[in-house]
Amino acid sequence: MNRTDAWHLANEYVKSPSLLNHMRCVEIAMRAYARKLGQDEELWGVVGLLHDFDYERWPNAPDHPLQGEKILRERGYPEEVIYAIKSHADYLSDCPRVTPLPKGLYACDELCGFITAAALVRPNGITDMTASSVKKKMKSKGFAQNVSREDIDRGAVDFGVDLTEHIQFIIEALKPHAAELELERGLGGIAE
Question: Over the stretch 97-149, which tens digit does the pLDDT of each residue have?
Fold first, then answer.
């Protein structure tokens, strides 16, 4: 298991640039947390990168992530990777999040999606974003309606991090990658 193989697998199954971008954002956030917590950065990064690789082909529960599980097993991925990826689906009761890796994935997944959405409506994208601006957007029920605020809150609590600090940590992790992630400038430049 390595990052290069994981990236090839992701690109084999995902054609949507926005989904690949989301998976990359989660990878970056997971790697940053692995460094902070003294965990295996490669393991955490691969989990973040591959967590939604089956979603485009099998978007409905429980196919996502169970179809991905089959593919990962066939390709020899470690059980720890498979379990963590399965655990990000709330509807799979046989995969409780009890260790830092699956808790980290759950905490980063929805929040990365929300931060990306918020960055895309800011004139300067993520470059001058703060946790307070993200929290302000979270209060707007009409903004990024498909992102569960409850999942974001629950993820931070379960991971044992303060929500404001968690948001800022992920923003700071993503900022150096703003150009790659196309988050340097917002699409609409809508002021907050």
Answer: 999 999 999 999 999 999 999 999 999 999 999 999 999 999 999 999 999 99
Please answer whether residues 53 and 23 qualify as being in contact, where contact means their C-beta atoms are separated by less than 8 angstroms.
yes
pLDDT digits (tens, 9 = 90+) for 65-90: 999 999 999 999 999 999 999 999 98
Q: Are 131 and 167 in contact (CB under 8 A)?
A: yes
Mind listing the domains of the chain with CATH numbers?
3-177 (1.10.3210)
Distance CA 60, CA 89 (A): 11
Tell me the three state secondary structure of residue 101.
helix
Helix axes 17-37, 3-13, angle to 10 degrees: 150
The secondary structure of residue 118, as a DSSP letter, is H
The answer to whether residues 118 and 187 touch, using CB atoms and an 8 Å cutoff, is no
H or E segment and range at residue 10: helix 3-13
